[in-house]
Amino acid sequence: MNGWDLLTWIMATGMLAGVAAIFVGFLRDARGILNRADGEEK
């Protein structure tokens, strides 16, 4: 495994962590969005 392979794996792992953080934030916010949508008058 050369340096570029190692860098690729490090970057892919970092991107995966970022995607996971964004998804967790979305799930936390989605609950609030759904609660606001249920409380609105139609």
Q: Report the portion of residues in β strands.
A: under 5%
What structural class do you assign from the helix and strand content?
Answer: mainly alpha
- Uncertain stretches: none
Tally the helices: 1
The N- to C-terminal Cα distance equals 60 Å
- How much is the average pLDDT? 89
The percentage helix is over 70%
Question: SSE string, helix = H, strand = E?
Answer: H
DSSP E strands, number? 0
Shape, per Cα inertia axes: rod-shaped
> What is the assembly state of the chains in this entry?
single chain
Radius of gyration: 18 Å
The largest pleated sheet is described as: none
Task: Sum this structure up briefly.
This protein is mainly alpha-helical. The chain has one helix at about 5-40.
